[in-house]
Amino acid sequence: MSGIRLLDRHVALFSGSLRTLLRRESDRRRCADSPYAWLFQPYMGEELVALACTSTPTPTSPVISLAAVVLSQQQVRTSRAFVLTLGAPGQADHASLRRHHLLCQAGCVAAPNRDNLNALVEFIGNRPIVGWQLDQRIGALNALLRKRLNFALPNAQVDVEKLHQRQLRRLHPEIEAPSSFAQALACWQVPAMGMQGVLGEATSSALLYMRLQRIMAEAA
Amino acid sequence: MVDVDLSQLPFTLLDDEGRDHIRRGIDLAYFDRDEIILETGQGGEFVYLIHKGEVAEIDPTLPSSTSRIGHYTAGDLFGAISILNGKSRYRFKAEQECLCYLLPKALFQQLCRHYPDFSNFFRQSLTHKARLLTEKRAEGGVTMAGFMLAKVSECMRAPLLMAAATDIASAVKQLNDSYADSLLVETQGKLGMVTKTDLLNGLVLGGSAVSSPLDELAHFNLVTVAPEQYLFEVLVLMTRHKVTRVVVLEQNVLKGVVELTDVLSYFSSRSYVVSLQVEQASSLETLSAASQRTPELVKALMAQGVKLRFAMDLLAALNGRIMSKAWEFTIEEQYRDQSCMMVMGSEGRGEQILKTDQDNGLILADDARWPDLLSHMQTLTDTLIQLGYPPCPGNIMVSNPEWVATVSQWKSNIAKWASERDGDSLMKLAIMLDAHAVAGNPSLLASVREELFERCSRDELLLSYFARTALRFSTPLTLFGSLKKPQHGIDIKKGGIFPIVHGVRTMALERRIQATSTFDRLDALAADGRLDRRFADDLGEALALFSELRLKQQLTALETPVGAQEANAQNSSRANRVVVQNLSSLERDLLREAMHIVKDFKQRLSHRYHLEYS
């Protein structure tokens, strides 16, 4: 592995604010004896997880559609993707549920209970997370996790948008970078894979990440 | 579930459930430029469906100039055959950055088990590809079909040579002893042939005695071939010269004899049967029956993988015989010598495999006397229509008085066309250039042609006008050199066949080449030094490819039940269109290369005839 990628991983690990760092540390201590302890172990493998999240706040609990896809050096394992919409089917706002179903094409709707949140964190494991505007997007998910499982996602996070901005600045320092996801994909000639759905977004961000990694490796 | 376009073959062979399985089971992979996706001998783990980028299929055992045997672009599929075979025979390498969908081996095998059509698709394209490859590799571009590779030397019999002074009685005895039915005699260094029929005729009708010497019965004008010639050419020769035996000579030394029955035992195709029927036809009905069988013959030849050029030769010989038979039936003996019937257009070039239309004309001697000329010519045209040659839409037929003229009238016509140089005149000149005599007195056509060369071949201005037509239709290539892919297909006649045929025709006019077939013209031009040999060969191959694609379309159009007449008219224009999307990727590759050759040829034409600004 090239030096730049190693650096990337560690920068990603410490890229959050001091507050998130402290929060993660306290989470880790609290969960030291729970079955979740392994999630806080540093990850030594080669895989990452691309995560896309869309949430709509409702009076009771937010409706969250999310998709997670594992990617390695070369492949995006779309065949083993994790796609779910979290929202209480009975009481929650029906209109926003339906909208999520149509817009995000995100599989079945399930009430946010311990089981499916468990499945999600088990799927992600301690692998680093990759995503577009990750900080903003997973806020709602983290809040939900903290409520139900007592900790937020502890994983190292790579925000593809930041990578994209950084790479653009490196190439064209004087240009104001375009910031929408579609523009970024077009900019690096990454094909958009079914942009509407959350799975499409996760896949595209995975491809964009792979692409940017290669460009950086070339530049280094 | 991934959004992937499964509306193409082979996925259309699955039902919705199968396609859903695929969508659920595929992964994505990203390959860098020049990365090897699948190495030779490596076991296949995935079927790759390209979403973006290009992949080359490489045979690493070949020298690098010819090692690229396949090319895949977005939407193409590869790796399936590696799974079926257990390991990959070739190396697949990304030519650009590629994004592929990976269909895992287990899922693919499961789909093959559940959907037999799907599995057959891959097995078919495997055999199809193998056949194309072996054809490509065969020396000299000859197809591997055993049919075509048979040489004369494999099929000839030992000659039965007897002294010229032998008497008939001992000759018959010798013939019976050796189970032969013909023998050769040699007198004064010349070879002659005596067949059983000759013996019979000589004894019964000619009044020869049993003791008279053989050489008074022998024929000395023999058709000869060399032992390394293809047997197929022998068949063409036999058809052309109406003989059933040819003599094999190697550097003027007698090697053997090839008989019709020997050839027929080699070819179980119907070619000779049809030509025999044509020869034996004694009335219009039987001739018409024989003529109706030619499409069947073409199909048999194509199925056996005969090289198109040979098939064209054979068909041209057959069509010529049919025409001249029709001529013999309708025109009285006394007129035959003072007139010459010529066929023009594709038929004149010998490139009309199926009977698409009749273009013909008549040349009369200057002193000809022919009272009922018009009605005779109308009968001739009607006879040809009856024989299955549809009338020419441009009315270039002997029934049209414009295409019946004496030698001097033709000459003045040519002079007029050459000086006018408008579109119509140029077209008529082009038509006349391809004229080929099929019946009557061929020396009349020769003198008209001589005049044509005399008038035109040195006239640079006329040549330039003449050549310009070749550039009239654009080559269906995109700016980046790949094939255009319009929905209704590309017009292969306008885009490929016409520029080659017309360009070669122009050069032949300039160099005064007598041959009318495009292939022969190319050979002559290469011998003349006007074109280099390699380029001429490439042009010939490209033309053969286009004609073959077109013929395939025409044959499938023939197979569809014959509906109304207007449907037929539509078919003829559709037959020229090739839908690129339906071709296999190897064929697509060949077509693209061929189109590039056409493009190159057009550039040479515009350079030679100064067409840059026209």
TrEMBL record, chain A:
SUPFAM superfamilies reported for this sequence: Ribonuclease H-like
Under InterPro entries, the record lists: RNaseH-like_sf
Report the domain of life of the source organism.
Bacteria
Protein name per the record: DNA polymerase III subunit epsilon
TrEMBL record, chain B:
Q: Which UniProt keywords apply?
A: CBS domain
Glycoprotein in keyword set? no
**InterPro entries membership:** CBS_dom, CBS_dom_sf, cNMP-bd_dom, cNMP-bd_dom_sf, DUF294_put_nucleoTrafse_sb-bd, GlnD_Uridyltrans_N, MgtE_transporter, RmlC-like_jellyroll
Which residues are in the Cyclic nucleotide-binding domain?
10-111
Q: Does Protein transport show up as a keyword for this record?
A: no
Any one GO molecular function term: magnesium ion transmembrane transporter activity
- List, alphabetically, the Pfam families matched: CBS, cNMP_binding, DUF294, DUF294_C
What GO CC terms are in its UniProt record?
Answer: membrane
Domain (CBS) ranges: 217-273
The family database entries (PANTHER family) matched by this protein are listed as: MAGNESIUM TRANSPORTER MGTE
Stated name of the protein: Cyclic nucleotide-binding/CBS domain-containing protein
